[in-house]
């Protein structure tokens, strides 16, 4: 816990500072996170043709991010899907692992860049997702430890409980609503519903990564962050929530994903 706390004290101000700054520095932060996840995935899955696969995955993340910065979401999506398809062909005996690794890294890096954009609503949307996911993660841990009870999915993650999942969801909703209320959003009911959905998706992403690690026979994606494991260990739930938020915004419609996410 001491290592986890110290790592958070270093990383959270850095992430928040770059989020407020926005632009290329913010995009570069998430590109680096995506590249780190590519490396971790290739090691966990023991992918063949690893150098070629990493290069292809890096093209998906870097070029996709560049397209998002210049406002072309459709081109970024096409780039990611094209690279993922080629990756599956590149390592045919591990096609599922190869394809999914590119998609996971892109999901961790690109949706949050698209949502951030350049305006104040983009900043508010990203802070909203941070609040939901971080509160869910923190309170699920402490409520689960305090209350215990039936396990959520013991075969995959034996420490997670239903009490923790519910406590985390409640905290995620409260945190998300507080952020958008402070940010000036008048209608808070949609934000609460969205926060609940994102909290659930975040916890599902966490469980999915636990299943992947169990399948690969590893405890952590890597040891890059003291007390936390790898980048993927920290961004599993966040990647799922950010992707879900962007998909919801796209379904709602509009040129600005952040406005489509927050304003109903």
TrEMBL record:
Query: Where is the protein situated, by its record's location annotation?
Result: Cell membrane
**Predominant location:** membrane
**Catalytic activity as recorded in UniProt:** a 1,2-diacyl-sn-glycero-3-phosphate + CTP + H(+) = a CDP-1,2-diacyl-sn-glycerol + diphosphate
Question: InterPro entries in the record, alphabetically?
Answer: PC_trans (IPR000374)
Q: What are the EC numbers?
A: 2.7.7.41
Any one GO MF annotation of this record:
phosphatidate cytidylyltransferase activity
Q: Which family does it belong to?
A: Belongs to the CDS family.
- Per its record, how is this protein called by name? Phosphatidate cytidylyltransferase
Give the taxonomic lineage as stored in the record: Bacteria, Pseudomonadati, Pseudomonadota, Alphaproteobacteria, Hyphomicrobiales
């Amino acid at each position: 816990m001491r290592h986890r706390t110290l790592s958070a004290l270093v990383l959270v101000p850095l992430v928040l500072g770059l989020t407020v700054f926005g632009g290329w520095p913010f995009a570069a932060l998430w590109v680096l996170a995506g590249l780190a996840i590519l490396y971790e995935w290739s090691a966990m899955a023991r992918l063949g043709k690893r150098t070629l696969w990493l290069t292809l995955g890096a093209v998906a993340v870097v070029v996709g991010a560049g397209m998002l910065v210049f406002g072309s979401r459709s081109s970024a999506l096409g780039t990611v899907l094209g690279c993922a398809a080629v990756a599956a062909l590149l390592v045919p005996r591990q096609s599922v692992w190869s394809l999914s690794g590119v998609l996971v890294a892109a999901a961790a890096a690109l949706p949050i860049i698209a949502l951030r954009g350049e305006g104040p609503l983009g900043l508010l949307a990203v802070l909203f997702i941070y609040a939901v996911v971080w509160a869910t993660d923190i309170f699920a841990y402490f409520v689960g430890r305090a209350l215990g009870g039936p396990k959520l999915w013991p075969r995959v993650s034996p420490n997670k409980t239903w009490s923790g999942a519910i406590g985390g969801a409640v905290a995620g909703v409260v945190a998300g609503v507080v952020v958008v209320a402070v940010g000036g959003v008048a209608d808070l009911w949609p934000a609460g519903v969205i926060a609940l959905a994102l909290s659930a998706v975040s916890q599902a992403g966490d469980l999915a990564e636990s299943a992947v690690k169990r399948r690969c026979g590893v405890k952590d994606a890597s040891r890059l962050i003291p007390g936390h494991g790898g980048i993927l260990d920290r961004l599993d739930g966040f990647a799922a929530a950010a992707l879900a938020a962007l998909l919801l915004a796209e379904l709602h419609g509009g040129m600005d994903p952040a406005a489509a996410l927050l304003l109903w």
